[in-house]
Amino acid sequence: MKGRDRRGAPRAKADWPVRLETFERGIIDGHVVDISTSGARVRAAADLPVGAAVTLPITLPGGAPRLEGVGRVGRPDAHAV
Questions:
Q1: What share of the chain is helix, strand, coil (3-state, %, to 5)?
Q2: CB burial readout 13-45, b (16+ within 10 A) else e
């Protein structure tokens, strides 16, 4: 169905800067748009191939501890900035 979110985990809107660490392109500045227990949507200036490994160190607002996740690019976003 068009417009329906098929991901299993509920998403929470986010507005956090992030620096993606990648093997293919080095460090890429991006922005976390939404996040869940199963993944995050990040907009970044560089295109990465599906399956590319990334490390996401995320600095949360308000002095919260830094998070770091390791994952893979699941799908490209046509609206990436």
A1: 5, 50, 45
A2: ebebebebbbeeeeebebbbbbbeeebbbbebe
Would you say 15 and 42 are in contact if contact means Cβ atoms under 8 Å apart?
no
Q: What is the pLDDT of residues 40-67, one digit of tens each?
A: 888 888 888 889 999 988 777 777 777 7
pTM over 0.70: no
Q: How far apart are CA 46 and CA 54, in angstroms?
A: 13
Strands 67-72 and 53-58: antiparallel
CA angle 70, 45, 77 (to 5 degrees): 70
**Residue 40 carries which DSSP code?**
E
Determine the Cα–Cα distance for residues 7 and 26; give it in Å rounded to an integer: 28
